[in-house]
Every structure is written in C-alpha cells, then in structure tokens.
C-alpha cells in the first residue's frame, strides 16, 4: 500500500486533486466525511459532545445541529479545543481502520487520505507522501464567495481561522499550485500520479 496525506486550506482545491487521483485508481478516504460519521447519534463522540456542550447542540431530528455547534466553537478557541479533543481521536481511529481495510483488500492500493486538519490535528499515520494544495488567501476567499455563497467577511474569517499556509507547506513533499487554471491543477496531479507509479515500479 502507498499512503498519501492530502491537505490544504479551505477552498484550496483538495477535492479537485482527490477526484483526479481517484480517476487514476486511488482509494479516497475523506476526513470531513469521517468527522460526520463519528458524531452520528448513538456514537460515543455524539454523547461526549452533548455532555460537553449541552442539549442545545442537538437539532429537532436528534442529530447534531452542526451550524449551531459551529457558531459555538468558531470564535471560541477553548471551546474548539474541547470539541477537537472529542472528534479528532474518533476520526483517527476510524481512518486507521479504513486504511487497514483498503490495504487488506488490495495490498498494492494507493490510498489518498484527504485531511484538511493534518497539521492542526497532528495526524500521524505513516504517510509515504504528503501533498499540499496551495492557493493564495485572495483566491480562497473568492472561491468561498463565488462557489459556496459565503459573504466576503465570513469567507475571510473562515480562511483566517485555519492554520497559516506556511505551516502546511513546511511538511509538504509535493505542493500543487491551484491558483491557475483547472488544466494546470490537473496536469500537476497527473504528474504526481506518474511519479508515484514510477517510485512503486522501482521499489
């Protein structure tokens, strides 16, 4: 198995790169999806969040009211730290199981673990390669406004709430510049796939 850690800031093109790698044959594991799965009603993390933040974070449907929880922790570093202390270990454990399953099903699998908080959550899987998608703050804000409907002030706050790009770039083995055209992003991703194939052929 070959394990890629894919990270980058919000609206930096991670999903585009992940989709392209899947088209080439990679197995995709999405940390955001896992973070939703581990807080489903009945899961230990759900109970722990309700115990920590109160019944007010549970919606009418019995699930977490994610927008309300987000409002609680977005501007409160201490609350966000408490939430992360519940969610991150649960995600880490589930991702470990899924990576092991992918390897059991295909020992030659290339697994892309798409994890926005790779730096912040101190994700420590034994990655063979860490890939960082990189776009300037201006581009990230524009994408959030144009593609996701954020108002500009909220978009800037979301970008600024994340770890500085410098911290991500310092751990990167490969940086994919996503500030240009879609074709430019795709060609860099295709080159990355060729590099991985060549490395594995030599191994």
Automatic annotation (TrEMBL):
Any Gene Ontology CC annotation: cytoplasm
Please classify the protein's predominant subcellular localization into one broad category: cytoplasm
Task: Write out the pathway annotation from the protein's UniProt entry.
Answer: Cofactor biosynthesis; coenzyme A biosynthesis; CoA from (R)-pantothenate: step 5/5
Q: Name one GO biological process term.
A: coenzyme A biosynthetic process
The keyword Transferase belongs to this UniProt entry's keyword annotation:
yes
Reactions mediated catalytically: 3'-dephospho-CoA + ATP = ADP + CoA + H(+)
UniProt keyword Methyltransferase, yes or no: no
- InterPro entries, A to Z: Depp_CoAkinase, P-loop_NTPase
* Superkingdom to which the source organism belongs: Bacteria
Subcellular location(s): the record lists:
Cytoplasm
Keyword annotations from UniProtKB, A to Z: ATP-binding, Coenzyme A biosynthesis, Cytoplasm, Kinase, Nucleotide-binding, Transferase
What Pfam families does the record tag this protein with? CoaE
Q: What class of enzyme is it?
A: transferase
Give GO MF terms, alphabetically: ATP binding; dephospho-CoA kinase activity
EC number(s): the record gives: 2.7.1.24
Binding annotation for ATP: 11-16
What biological function has been recorded for the protein in this entry?
Answer: Catalyzes the phosphorylation of the 3'-hydroxyl group of dephosphocoenzyme A to form coenzyme A.
The similarity comment for this entry is:
Belongs to the CoaE family.
Q: What is this protein called?
A: Dephospho-CoA kinase
């Amino acid at each position: 198995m070959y394990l890629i850690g894919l990270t980058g800031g919000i609206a930096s093109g991670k999903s585009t790169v992940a989709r392209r790698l899947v088209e080439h044959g990679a197995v995709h594991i999405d940390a955001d999806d896992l973070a939703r799965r581990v807080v489903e009603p009945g899961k230990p993390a759900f109970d722990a969040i309700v115990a920590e933040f109160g019944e007010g974070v549970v919606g009418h449907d019995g699930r977490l009211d994610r927008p309300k929880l987000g409002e609680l922790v977005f501007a409160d570093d201490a609350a966000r730290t408490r939430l992360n202390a519940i969610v991150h270990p649960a995600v880490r454990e589930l991702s470990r199981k899924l990576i092991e399953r992918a390897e059991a099903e295909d020992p030659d699998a290339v697994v892309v673990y798409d994890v926005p908080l790779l730096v912040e959550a101190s994700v420590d899987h034994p990655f063979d390669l860490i890939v960082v998608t990189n776009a300037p703050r201006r581009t990230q804000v524009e994408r959030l406004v144009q593609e996701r409907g954020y108002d500009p002030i909220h978009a800037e706050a979301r970008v600024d709430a994340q770890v500085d790009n410098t911290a991500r770039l310092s751990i990167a083995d490969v940086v994919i510049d996503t500030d240009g055209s879609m074709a430019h992003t795709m060609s860099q991703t295709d080159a990355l796939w060729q590099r991985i194939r060549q490395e594995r052929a030599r191994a």
